[in-house]
Amino acid sequence: MAQARGDLPLLDRRLAIVTGKGGTGKTTVVAALARAAADRGRRVLVTEVGRDAHVPRLLDPAATEPGYEEREIVPGISVMRIEPFAALTEYLGLQIGMPGLVARVLQNRGFRQLMGASPGWRDLITLGKVWHLEQMVRDGRPKYDLIIVDAPATGHGMTFLDVPRVVAAAVRAGPLRQHTLQVEALIADPERTLLIPVALAEELPARETTALVRRVRNELSIHVDRVIVNAVHELPFSEDLGDLDAQLAGLPDVIDFEALPPPAVLARCVRYLRSRWQLNQRYLEEIRRQTELPTVALPYLASGVRGAEDIARLAEAVIAEPRRETLT
Amino acid sequence: MNAEARALFERRIVVCVGCGGVGKTTISAALALEAARSGLRTLVLTIDPARRLADALGVEDLGNEPRALPREALAELGVPPEGSLSAVMLDMKRTFDELVERLAENGESRDRIMSNPIYQNVSDALAGSVEYSAMEKVYQLSEEPDYDLLVVDTPPAQHALDFLEAPQRMLEFLESRIVQLLIHPAFAAGRFGFRIFQRGAHRVFGVIEQVTGVGFLEDISEFLLAFEGMSDGFRRRALSVRGLLEGPDSAYVLVAGPGPESVAQSHQFLDRLEGFGIRLEGVVANRVRLWPDGPVPDAIEPTPRDIETLRDGLARRAGEGFPAEAAARAAIACAEGYAAQVRRDAAELETLRARVESHRRFWRAVPELDEDAHDLEALARLGRLVSESTGEKS
User: Fold this and answer.
1) Boundaries of domain holding B85
2) Which candidate in A164, B47, B306, B322 could, as Cys together with B134 as Cys, close a disulfide (CB 3.0–4.6 Å)?
C-alpha cells in the first residue's frame, strides 16, 4: 500500500468539490484555490453549478457571466457554468450521433416539460459533465490538472453528490447505468477527488459542518480530509490586555475627549472585536473536535473580499497545512 | 408591536425568503414566536433539509408532524394562554407517502406505487422532490384548523424559487402530451405499443430508450399509470397551493445580511419575486453591525491630548504594571476597526434599503448579537427587535 490517502496534497487531486452552507464564503474559497493552483503552474477549471456564478468576477473584475463553453479568464484559470440542458444536449449528441434528431427531440415541448418536472437529472448530468471534463486530454496529458466544482449549498449539496448512487439503483441497465457507475467511481476515488467543506467558526455553521462530515462518512464514499474555515477574526491586540474592555468601561464617564468616542463606546468596540475572536476560536476547536478533521483558517478581511487582490491574499492561506490544534 | 408586524400577522401564511447564511431560519422562528406572543396559534415550518430550525428552537426530535413547544416555557416569554407555538420540519419521504395514501383510489394502486423503483427513489432522495413535498406540506398545514398563522422558512435563494415554481411545474408536467402518451393504456398493453402513436413521440421515446435502456421507460410508465388515478387530485392540489402562495393570504418577507454576496443575491431575489408578481411586505436586514451611540463617525481621529487622557485614565484605574500606552492605542485601533465594519455594513446595505423604502415596504436592521440566537429567550429578544423597532435607518 502506498502513502495514506490523506497525505496527497490538495492540489495534486483532479477534482475538488467545494461545498458549504450559504454565506460561508464558498465562492471566496473556490476563487482562492483556483488562484493558488494556477500560481503553481496547474491548469485549472472552475465549474459553476447553479444560476448564480460569482467566482469569475473575484478573479477578474472585467469577467462576464460564464457560459457552457470553457473560457480562460486569467492565465491558467478557465471557468464555465454547467447548464443542465446544454449538458444533456451534448451528452445525447455523443450517445446517439445524430445531432439533428437530438436537437429536434430537445426542442420538443413535451420533452422539455417532462425533463422540467423530473427531479434529479440536472444533478446527474452536471456530475456527468464534470466526469467528461476530467477525462479530456490535450497534448498527451489531462486538459485540466485540477477541476474545482463550486457545488450547491450544504443541504442540497448532499443530494447532489448522492445522485449517482440513487440513479444507479433506479436504472437497471443500458448506457445510462454504465455512465452513472463511472461518475460514481470518480467521485469515490480518494486519489482523484476531494470534498472540501467550507464553514464559519460560528455555532450553526459549525454544527451543520459536523452533520455534513458525518453524513459524508456514513453514507457517501467521497474523501474529505480537512475543513476550510472562512472569515476567522484575529485579535487586534495582544492577549495581556485581555480585560481592556472592563478597564475602559470602568473609566469615569466625565472623561471628556476632544475627538474620541466616550469610554463606554470604546469599551463596546473592544468587547465586540474580542468576543468575535473568542467565538471564532471556540468554534474552530469545536469543528476540529466534532469532525475529527484538521482545519484551515482564512483570515477575516475587514474591508470585505472584493476582487483579485483580496483573493491573492487568501490564496496562500487556503492551501496551508491543515491544523490539528490551536496555537497558543 | 408596530402596525407592519400586525399587518403581517393578519395573514394565513408568512413566507420568509432569502439567500443562505443570513439567519433566515432564526428570523422565521423569531417571527413565529412573536406571533405567538401576540396571541396567535402559530406553526413554523422549515423545508430546509439542513435542520437548522430544530437547532434554534432547541428541539431535538423535530419531525414531519407539528410539535408544540411546552406551554410553561412559552408563558415565561409572554405568550398568552390563547397563543401557542408549534414547529414542524419537512420529511420529504413521509410527506410524499402521505400524499399517495390520501390520493390513491384503493389499497392496490397505493401498493403498486409504493413498490415501484422509480417512486421509491424519486420520493426518497432526489433534489427536485423537496419542492414537490414542500408544496404538499404547506397545503396540508394550511388546511389544519388548529393554527391561525403558518410561518414558512425556505431553502436558500436558488431553491426557494424552485419552491414557488413547483405547483406550476407539476401542472405542466401532468398536462404534458408526453405524460398523456406515457400513461395511455395502449402503451401499457405492450412495450412497443406506443409506436403506433405520432412519429414525434416515437422519436422521443426512442431517444430516451437508447440512453436509459428499456427497463427504465417501463418503470416510468408503470409509475405514471399508477399515478393516473391520482392526477386529478394532484392537479386540484397544485392549483390550490398556487392560489394560496400567490394570493392575498400569503405575505413574503425577505431576510438579507450585510456582505456584498448577500446584497447582490437579495437584489436578484427581489427581481424574481417581482417577476412572479408577488408583493413583498418588507426586508429584515439581519446581523447588521450598528454603532452603539448614534450615527457612526466618519473617522476616529483622536487628538494627541485625547490619547494622553485615555492613557492616563487607564493607568490610574488599572494601576502599576498595566501597559496603559499600548492599551490606549489598542482601544483606539478597535474603535477604528469596528467603525469601519459598521460603515461597511451600512454602505453595502444602502442600495437594498433605498430600493425597499422607495417601494414603501418595511425595512428593519437587526443588530448582530454576540452569540447566535440558539435558545427560545434569544429568539424572543430577536422577535421583539424585528416587530417593535421603529425602523432602523442605517
Assistant:
1) 3-163+240-291+350-388
2) B47
